[in-house]
């Protein structure tokens, strides 16, 4: 499919409406994923580390790096969220298949999947809303 160079007024209005509705859900889901990972690593994990905060920061650092792009609301930031979220999806699936961490793995997988989908649709609709109007 060829890249669109312009949109109609109706398409632009619809894309603007959709990305404005998707934005708060994307940011809320990103924060939820950070909170779930933090709570698991600090309070629920059975493995004891000498420096648990260093391990936590290393774990959530990729998510923290995309927070400014999410808060700005740029569609490129949303694309980066999609890339980063895939690693958390994989980690969630691996944790889900373990007997002890299945609940954490399930929540991480579902939150990462939802965040990927929200960021993908946000990037699409935001990109369409920024195209010039074809008369």
UniProtKB/TrEMBL annotation:
InterPro entries: DUF2069_membrane. The keyword Cell cycle does not apply. It comes from the Bacteria. Pfam families: DUF2069. The chain crosses the membrane at residues 20-41, 53-71, 78-96, 102-123. Keywords: Membrane, Transmembrane, Transmembrane helix. This is DUF2069 domain-containing protein. It comes from Marinomonas phaeophyticola.
